[in-house]
């Protein structure tokens, strides 16, 4: 007689495939770093990490003479830390009765609802963590010539950052989609290959992006945006001290601003585009007095500091003291957003968790996903439970290879 009892390994494999299918954002970003975590098959814990090196933008030296200073600058890589810092799980009914169901019955009655809840939670978490690190932003105006014109501006922003043109995605809510599709529905062109990757939610292609719907997009909530100025001249790097505050003022992660006469440089020629560099606040800040320090992206890196040329220069100059921060949106605005990006702008990794001693289970572990299904009991209380766990991390690798299109109702 054939043994039709469902086992943990079968459930884990189905759960992993379903999780990727249900997670719109997860499957559209780089997950290649999972291979580095997966070298340890015994499992990982919260806090494990890998370093991601970002190649420098090389300086081209004029003439035939070798320039060792330029060579040194060309060797200065940037580093991002991808840490697996989040564990989520969902309970699953997997007792003796459920184990006798066939796989199709079990998937539809128990597994799919559990995975849909887990996938929604993970996708929403990663999308918020991504969006608040993206500095390129544009708002939909009240009198746009074309509903898709803001996405054309987003494409310009990506182009100025030398973002690869292949595989660009615009992720937006169904409500946002309805606001940009005209009555004829002919704004978008189909892309059959991309449509295959998204069983639901694929809208079409326009302005160089494949438009895909997700209901997990984070809405930017602004804090204070007015009266904030640079406090101190000559500031560089990833921290900016600002003034004009009062005790208790809040500036929120994800707020985007520009600074007068701090212009964006072409990454290769180091010539100004004649457009202000946009910066994003990376962490919430509550002022304890008249000044505060903002953690920002990108770092303020002028072409020259004094007589010294800088590696990976991105702006024409440091901001002058007293210059106002000009934010996207106003005080306490809530901004609906679409996220435009390429796969390698962000990186996520799902690391394997080992099955605990005294439990039954299975850890599904490949280069694209790691997931554990585990059953354990409490003999004192005479109770048994099953859970599906994922351990993952996320890091923005090139935030300037993404852009936000916002709408304020």
UniProtKB/TrEMBL annotation:
Pfam families: P22_CoatProtein (PF11651). The lineage of its organism: Bacteria, Pseudomonadati, Pseudomonadota, Gammaproteobacteria, Moraxellales. It comes from Acinetobacter halotolerans. Gene3D superfamilies: 2.40.30.240. This is P22 coat-protein 5 family protein. InterPro entries: Phage_coat_Gp5.
